[in-house]
Amino acid sequence: MSVFAAIKQHVPEWPGFRPAEWFRKRREAASGDERVPIRDWVDAGRPARVMGVDSALIWVTCALLAFGLVMVYSASVALPDSPRFALYSPTHFLSRQAVFIAIGLVFAFATTQIPISVWEKWAPWLFALAMVFLALVLVPHVGKVVNGSRRWIATAGVGFQPSEIAKLAMCMYAASYMVRKMDVKENFVKAVWPMAVALGLIGVLLLAEPDMGAFMVIAAIALGVLFLGGVNGRMFLLSVAVLLGAFTLMIVFSEFRRQRIFAYLDPWNPTYAQGKAYQLTHSLIAFGHGEIFGQGLGNSIEKLHYLPEAHTDFLLAVIGEELGFVGVFIVVTAFFWLTRRLFIIGRQAIALDRVFAGLMCQGVGLWMGAQSFINFGVNLGVLPTKGLTLPLLSYGGSGVVLNLVALALVLRVDMESRALMRGGRT
């Protein structure tokens, strides 16, 4: 009787134990004549005692949602003092954000019940649906104009941004695209050109709103997934150069965008301080006022009608004023950890030969990382002002719901990867 048979005779409940594979790994890890105790053989064959989900990812997400709820309330509690929000109660934005989070959690739970293979099958159609929504928002009486931008579609008194759907759709479509183009990824015409056309069409629709910030995030997702999918380095650099050239031309030929760049470069100039750089200057004042430990939760001065959009685009400035450098550092660290974790889950899926799932996870990581980085940069004056919220934290229904759905997709990928590693099936 072989040693493997003898061991399995004593431990018949090992459904996922592969002795040859285990012995190979142990032999690689061991050095010299190191012997393997029989107890290690028994422990090695048992299924890993781990949860079926990434509990750390869930806890960090829940912590960011809870913290965002508190800060949205703090940043918006004084808004009813303004004539624009005179009909709102002090808890208006708090209650709506709580409802958005509840809806997002329901959608997220439903998302985790659908296998990734189904999402892969429907990825191109979801991308087409996102394009339809981006076109519909430009139709008069369908798209809602807010602050000079037509970015929302109002349904039953609630508006949603098609650009948020487009971000998630791009994560799926780019991953699906790379799987389908894997055999021709060295050919520019066959591998890169079709994606460039799709990205250009999205850019035209988004810039017509206008929403250059969302376009930058979607472009980062598309190019990042192409690069991670193995597109030739020269073709990738060429694509980046073309995109940067397009952004430069948009700034050169747009007086509005050009003035924003000048205001960003010299925000304290009296010409810009009360105009294009008004938000930036008051955001910087908030950070300066917060110093190291902040003025205390609820004690922000800038949120008292000095800093516009304090509960959305510039929520980080309120965090900096009330909780100081320490609070901002914790938020930045949390997003760094979240982005890194999404990439790790994606890499694990690719190692298990699940390329679509892995690239989609990394696309979501690019989304969270790029959007949070741009929001940090705008609030701190490192980047020109853009209308981008902070994922999971800022007030906004479609943003929070789609963020949670995207993270639920990653969670589903992780659940399937864990099942595979335990010898099961997805």
TrEMBL record:
Keyword terms of this UniProt record: Cell cycle, Cell division, Cell inner membrane, Cell membrane, Cell shape, Cell wall biogenesis/degradation, Glycosyltransferase, Membrane, Peptidoglycan synthesis, Transferase, Transmembrane, Transmembrane helix
Subcellular location: Cell inner membrane; Cell membrane
EC number: 2.4.99.28
UniProt entry tagged with the keyword Oxidoreductase: no
Pathway assigned in UniProt: Cell wall biogenesis; peptidoglycan biosynthesis
Catalytic reactions on record: [GlcNAc-(1->4)-Mur2Ac(oyl-L-Ala-gamma-D-Glu-L-Lys-D-Ala-D-Ala)](n)-di-trans,octa-cis-undecaprenyl diphosphate + beta-D-GlcNAc-(1->4)-Mur2Ac(oyl-L-Ala-gamma-D-Glu-L-Lys-D-Ala-D-Ala)-di-trans,octa-cis-undecaprenyl diphosphate = [GlcNAc-(1->4)-Mur2Ac(oyl-L-Ala-gamma-D-Glu-L-Lys-D-Ala-D-Ala)](n+1)-di-trans,octa-cis-undecaprenyl diphosphate + di-trans,octa-cis-undecaprenyl diphosphate + H(+)
GO BP term, pick one: peptidoglycan biosynthetic process
GO MF entry, a single one: peptidoglycan glycosyltransferase activity
Keyword Signal appears in the UniProt entry: no
Transmembrane segments: 56-77, 98-116, 122-142, 188-208, 214-231, 236-254, 314-338, 350-370, 390-411
First-listed, main subcellular location of the protein, grouped into a coarse class: membrane
Listed InterPro entries: FtsW (IPR013437), FtsW/RodA (IPR001182)
GO cellular component: cell division site; plasma membrane
One protein family per Pfam: FTSW_RODA_SPOVE
Protein family (similarity comment): Belongs to the SEDS family. FtsW subfamily.
Protein function: Peptidoglycan polymerase that is essential for cell division.
HAMAP family in UniProt: PGT_FtsW_proteobact (MF_00913)
Protein name: Probable peptidoglycan glycosyltransferase FtsW
Organism: Scleromatobacter humisilvae
Gene: ftsW
